[in-house]
Amino acid sequence: MAKKKITAETTASDGIHIGISEKDRLAIAEGLSRLLADSYSLFLMTHNFHWNVTGPQFNSLHLMFETQYTELFAAVDEVAERIRSLGAFAPASFTRFSELSSFTIPDEKLAANDMIAHLVKGQEAVVRTARGVFPVAEAASDEPTLDLLTRRMELHEKNAWMLRSLLA
């Protein structure tokens, strides 16, 4: 049996040999770090709104927000673990998330409809961030990351649609 020729594409200085160059893995991990920051920021904002929503739609919004923040909590773990699988460290502080996130979390007390509007913007921001990582992962033939990104975009697009429908 002939030995496969080892090239720069199959070896990495950090000892990770998964068929993606170190440069590409780190570029993908950088994009995923932005996705993690956006996802964690959206988790935090959604959880805040779950706690603080008031008004005639309280029960339905309280439950909807709980469903969304629970899903986000699982998602941030999956994104962080993908970053680690690629050989990078996942950002894990409010400072780093604040630096990397593409949106800010409102600090003031908001009416229910304003909360919903902020959540629509947050859901859409996560989609845009995921979509921005897609070409980098696609060029590197990183199918696990592509699958993760596709699932995240699908879920956040659906959440944004459902939230927008409440504002119609």
UniProtKB/TrEMBL annotation:
Pfam families: Ferritin. GO terms for molecular function: ferric iron binding; oxidoreductase activity, acting on metal ions. Belongs to the Dps family. Residues 30-167 form the Ferritin/DPS domain. This is Ferritin Dps family protein. It comes from the Bacteria. PANTHER family: DNA PROTECTION DURING STARVATION PROTEIN, GENERAL STRESS PROTEIN 20U. CDD domains: DPS (cd01043). InterPro entries: DPS_DNA-bd (IPR002177), DPS_DNA-bd_CS (IPR023188), Ferritin-like (IPR012347), Ferritin-like_SF (IPR009078), Ferritin_DPS_dom (IPR008331).
